[in-house]
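Per reviewer request, we include the raw input and output of the structure prediction for the construct analysed in the revised manuscript.
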Amino acid sequence: MRGHFESLVSSLFSSLTGDEVLLCGFQGEDSDFVRMNQGRIRQPGSVRQSSVELDLIVGQRHAEGSVSLSGQRELDLGRLRGLLDELRGRLPFLADDPHLLYAQEIHDTEDLDDAVLPDSASAIDAVLSAADGTDLVGIWASGAVHRGFANSLGQRNWFTAKSFHLDWSLYARADKAVKSSYAGRAWSDLDFGAAMARARTQLAAVARPARTIDPGGYRVFLAPAAVGEIVELLDWGGFSLKAQRTRHSSLMAAVDGKKALSDKITLRENTAEGFAPGFEGMGFVKPPSVTLFDAGRYRDALVCPRSAQEYGVPTNGANGRESLESYDLAGGSLPRDEALAAQHGDRERSFEGRGAPEG
């Protein structure tokens, strides 16, 4: 995919005239997918797809569009040249964009994942064997994602990440089910076996008769998945500089210094150790990490190039939505197996679940 992309954009750059600047972004994937239901394979498949987005700039005017690629050079080049001509035709009718900001210093990067993923057929056999006798519903996804960037100023960036993700539920009856997941870059029979064993234990618990909990105050254990849902809810503009400056962020009390989260909460956008590219669509290279909350105190926001231009601050390479892509929530101190016993213990101890606050 990389060679195809670089060949296409090199031809496009050679056709530019005058003060034209062209930004080119690439997205692609090569993945296997398997859907399972009632402990059986229901839909296997694979996907290989890619696309290129062009952003043509002259002064402070710019126009953008995208094309899906076929993998055939002449066909794809013809489509891209047609799109480039279309963008040229739009530019005279567009107003200057006061918030346009793109990288004009060249920073080349290359990040190639050397992970050896498990064979999908073998992995699915292991999953169905471990789930024998249960009503398992889930989806398996495994493969590589590719991101690229090139501009007519000479910058080149490429990113490839490989991973697998198994998301499944074991059903007891009706709405009684246990949801689990297992993901990574290297398959471990031991780790997967432990995850399935926990799911079976939890399934036995949810199969018991339901109990009605009376209103009142209770200590609550938040599992990692539950904490993840909370973080993702806060990510609906909460960490965005634009949302904070327009006072639409849900975290304004923390941004203003009036309130703080638990001092056990340290949250970072951790690009260096995540599965997102280290560059964004306007060519800016991201720092290794951005600390959003440090020991419960607000520290920094996600800043895309447009917000940086509008508010006169440096960009930290956030995407256009200024949302999380590789967040890292610092771990707590309580081992998972001690969570139940801890309900009667020291109330100051942090729960496992990556620094989850007590409920």
